[in-house]
Amino acid sequence: MNANKPDHLQGAGTPLSQWQASPLLQQVPTVSLQELVPQGHRLVVVAPHPDDEVLGCGGLLAMMTGREADLLVVSVTDGDASHPGSSTWPAARLRDERPQESERALACLKLDVERLRWHRLGLPDTRVEQFEDQLCSHLVDLLRPGDRVLTTWRHDAHGDHEAVGRACANAVALANARLLEMPVWTWHWASPQDPRLPWQRARKLLLDDVTLARKRLAVNAHTSQLHEDAGTGAPAVLTATTLERLLQPFEMIFV
Ligand SMILES: [Zn+2]
Fold first, then answer.
1. Ligand 1 center from residue 206 Cα (angstroms)
2. Could you report the per-residue pLDDT of 201-248, keeping only the tens digit for each?
3. What's the CA-to-centroid distance between 236 and ligand 1, angstroms?
4. How far apart are the first and last CA of the chain?
5. Which residues keep their CB under 5 angstroms from ion ligand 1?
6. pTM exceeds cut of 0.70
């Protein structure tokens, strides 16, 4: 995520209770890990900012324990623009801390961090769109045919999330891989029956209690995003209402 929020991402957003009452959401069919990432295929998670990989698909990542050799995580930015104007969290500190938070979070998911591949691209936070072609080329170099590439939805209504989604869509077409997308900010701005969502492509990956608990621990590893900024008075980037929407007992994937 990122705190440079345009108007549609301000405020509390759509309450979880409204999502839970959504007939369209209730009707989304389930999908298994094996269907999403069949044996012999890699899962490549492309995260615009450190924490998107956990917020969007921490449960799926936790299910990949034991298959770390099939896992590649790509951190597009280091998330150093999450606290604009902050003396507590200047960009240099965020560049240092947020990747460490990601590493601790992956360990919370019980992944063997030594065995998975993790690429940090260091593109500028909030300006990925300007580097979209470069990102696409880089991804094409990393991808193999048949890879399942999971990233933020191209219409997540956040600049970096959409740019990364588009770059991944172009890269998988060139690499003969397959695109999977996850909503992150969508849970905030969309309405529970929103016709803009690709409901036909939506699937739910159900998370059992243990997996959900690991995901919650992993989210909590992103401490820089969880607290009010004492310096600027800005609220936490990840508010309680944001987190409860992202810690439902399933993850929604657009296949
Ligand atoms: Zn993000």
1. 22
2. 999 999 999 999 999 999 999 999 999 998 888 889 999 999 999 999
3. 14
4. 22
5. 1, 48-49, 52
6. yes
